Amino acid sequence: MKLLALGVLIVSLWLPRYSQLCPNAPLPRLTVGERGAVESGIDRLRLRALPAVGTGEVQLLYAGNQFEVIAGPSCNGGFVWWRINVDNGGSGWVAEGTWTEYYLQPLERSSGLCNRADLPWAHLLVTAACKIIGI
Predict the structure, then answer these.
(1) DSSP character at residue 102
(2) Fewer CB atoms inside 10 Å of the end CB: C or N, the chain?
(3) Which CATH number goes with the domain that contains 100?
(4) Range of the domain at 104
């Protein structure tokens, strides 16, 4: 119970700064210039012409497809969007994920505690705690 209260306190102190990034979307793990891949278990992720649901579909991405992030983030419809160049051809915008799962993963993550969370809510909590304590 004390751990839960500590988590709520940590997030409440840091969340106002985070919410300006992209309200209603999980904290992004990608950055421009970074390489990434579609998470395992993700099938038929839509690469779009613009950073919005319902815009033209460029192609479908599948688990393991690798890419380079070339622009973003863009916030739209509760998603963080990244413009990517896919290794096997094609470019467009793709959503990073929802509060229940990430669709994309960075290929190289630092090994520190602050970069290990794979679930969006856990990533937010750990990142907030690391920012507050200065790690």
Answers:
(1) B
(2) N
(3) 2.30.30.40
(4) 22-133
Alpha-carbon distance of 10 to 77, in angstroms, equals: 26
Length of the chain as a residue count: 135
Residue found by looking up tokens 């705690």 in the block: 129
Beta strands in 1-135 (DSSP E): 35-38, 43-48, 57-62, 66-76, 79-86, 91-95, 104-106
Count of the separate structural domains present in the chain: 1
18-65 pLDDT tens trace: 445 688 888 888 999 999 999 999 999 999 999 999 999 999 999 999
113: Cα separation from own chain's centroid: 17
Q: What is the pTM of this model?
A: 0.73
Tokens of 67: 């890419």
CA atoms within 13 A on the CB side of 97: 24
